[in-house]
Design brief:
Blueprint lengths: L3 H10 L2 H13 L22 H5 L4 H4 L5 H4 L11 E8 L6 E20 L2 E24 L2 E17 L2 E14 L5 E13 L5 E16 L4 E2 L4 E11 L2 E10 L7 E10 L2 E12 L2 E14 L2 E8 L8 E9 L1
Antiparallel strand pairs: 1-2, 1-15, 2-3, 3-4, 4-5, 5-6, 6-7, 7-8, 7-9, 9-10, 10-11, 11-12, 12-13, 13-14, 14-15
């Protein structure tokens, strides 16, 4: 069946390479059976990152507290235990054609305030923590001699206005280009996130993706990325056992675009992970089983995930490298 979202974008892009790209990216984005007026299809489709979280089924909205927190839920940057640098790479469809690479760094600082002491202004801690993140995401589709590229740098920040409550935001710049007919686009997207940890050992996380967005094409047309709301709940049964669930609703699919359930058993320096995902795919439910493992050597973490028909057409393997400093 012809997808009207694919038709609209393919007509704009005017080239076979973009037609293939859209077919691939639409498959990875769990497409809707009908188009949302003005919503971009294919371009800048969400590609989840971080082998640790993917090994748990993708429940990062409530569990990711490292360099990839900006991608999953910027509010979790408040809970950084240390500064972190991470790299994630994926051959999206196992064909050597479409590749996605993300480099992310996150750092923290203690919130301070200025007070008057003995007639002088002094800086003192006021409690709480601020978190910051920077991401560079690159997606390329190479069908020689034509190529298509998406580049999306992002900046994230988070703070804690009250004890046990954190809020954060991520701002992405979007740049797409193709050497076919000089087609290009430029835009932005803004996400908002919340994290609640007042009821230990329970955690709650929520993120509104693409709450504000625009993508302006070189043919003087514009689109927006579909808005999505994701919520998650985690329970730390033991210091070494974490269970979590998450669900996503979006403009593309309702009431639920995806549901995820996962867990991690951390036997430092080894961690074992598993997760189950459910996606709506053109009116049909699609299940996937994810498995993962991680190993730590001092501040260096290597994470692996087997992703079963979740964010790609076929099962795939994901690898991430994280450096804690």
């Amino acid at each position: 069946m012809t997808n009207p979202m694919t038709n609209a974008m393919t007509n704009r892009m005017k080239g076979p390479i973009l037609g293939l790209l859209l077919a691939l990216m639409l498959a990875s984005a769990s497409p809707a059976p009908a188009a949302i007026p003005g919503a971009t299809a294919g371009a800048f489709a969400r590609i989840d990152v971080g082998a640790r979280i993917l090994g748990m089924g993708g429940v990062g909205v409530v569990t990711e507290r490292g360099a990839f927190a900006g991608h999953w839920n910027a509010a979790n940057l408040v809970h950084l235990e240390a500064n972190e640098l991470a790299v994630d790479y994926a051959d999206l469809f196992g064909l050597g054609i479409a590749r996605h690479t993300t480099v992310a760094v996150a750092w923290r600082r203690t919130a301070t305030r200025r007070v008057l002491r003995e007639g002088r202004l002094a800086t003192v801690p006021r409690g709480g923590q601020l978190g910051f993140g920077l991401e560079l995401a690159l997606t390329t589709v190479d069908l020689e001699p034509e190529t298509y590229t998406e580049f999306a740098p992002a900046f994230s920040f988070a703070g804690s206005p009250w004890s046990g409550l954190a809020a954060g935001s991520r701002i992405r710049l979007l740049r797409a280009s193709s050497d076919l007919d000089d087609v290009s686009a430029f835009g932005y997207a803004i996400d908002l996130g919340l994290a609640v940890e007042r009821f230990a050992p329970w955690r709650v996380g929520a993120q509104a993706r693409n709450l504000l967005s625009t993508l302006a094409w070189s043919d003087d047309t514009s689109d927006h990325l579909p808005v999505a709301i994701e919520v998650g709940l985690a329970y730390e049964m033991l210091p070494c056992l974490l269970l979590a669930a998450a669900a996503t609703a979006s403009e593309d699919l309702s009431p639920i675009e995806s549901a995820r359930l996962g867990g991690e058993w951390n036997l430092d320096p080894i961690a074992l992970r598993a997760g189950i995902t459910l996606h709506q795919d053109r009116g049909e439910d699609r299940f996937g089983m994810n498995l993962g493992a991680g190993a730590r050597l001092r501040g260096l973490h290597l994470d692996y995930a087997f992703v079963g028909e979740d964010d790609t057409i076929d099962p795939s393997q994901r690898v991430s490298l994280r450096l804690i400093f």
